[in-house]
Design goal:
- With about 150 residues, the chain is of the alpha+beta class.
- It has a domain at about 45-125.
- It is built from 3 helices and 9 strands, in the order H-H-E-E-E-E-E-E-E-E-E-H.
- The protein has helices at about 1-20, 30-40, 125-145; strands at about 40-45, 50, 55-60, 65-70, 75-80, 95, 100, 110, 115-125.
- It is elongated and about 60 Å long.
């Protein structure tokens, strides 16, 4: 009886997954495209990053770059000295700091017990990036609505 119940629930889930694949779910950007977007909105290298001892979130951009959000609207592109091979698969990271300030060439990103020295920190114009992405999405939506099907 248990096996039959599992099959009854598994078949609709499998069919839904197959239908989603057929329906043209949009693909996500590649990591290289995401990295290029952040780099294009990054400013000049900073001498330090001051924050309140914890960060809002973070996103890996490959083996030697990540974006650290100190608040939901403040993003910083952090480049670490290679190799930092576990960065793309890390579930958590840490930042070393001195009195709430992170310095390039002095502090590190800690990943799975390894210290990856920070080579550079750049502020990302995150509000402009989001506005540009929103404008692109609106333009794409308008074009798809105007195109007869």
């Amino acid at each position: 009886m248990r096996r039959f119940t599992r099959t009854v629930f598994a078949v609709p889930l499998l069919l839904a997954a197959l239908a989603a694949c057929q329906s043209g779910i949009p693909r996500h950007e590649s990591q290289a495209e995401i990295r290029a977007r952040y780099v294009s909105y990054a400013g000049a290298p900073l001498e330090r990053l001051t924050y309140l001892g914890h960060f809002y979130s973070w996103e890996s951009l490959g083996n030697n770059q990540l974006v650290v959000y100190t608040t939901p609207s403040d993003a910083f592109l952090v480049t670490v000295t290679p190799p930092c091979t576990d960065l793309p698969w890390a579930q958590t990271i840490g930042l070393t700091s001195t009195a709430g300030t992170v310095y390039p060439r002095l502090d590190s990103v800690t990943v799975k017990g390894w210290r990856c020295p920070i080579a550079q920190i750049q502020r990302v114009d995150y509000s402009r990036m989001r506005a540009d992405m929103r404008a692109e999405a609106d333009k794409a939506k308008a074009q798809s609505a105007a195109t007869p099907q």
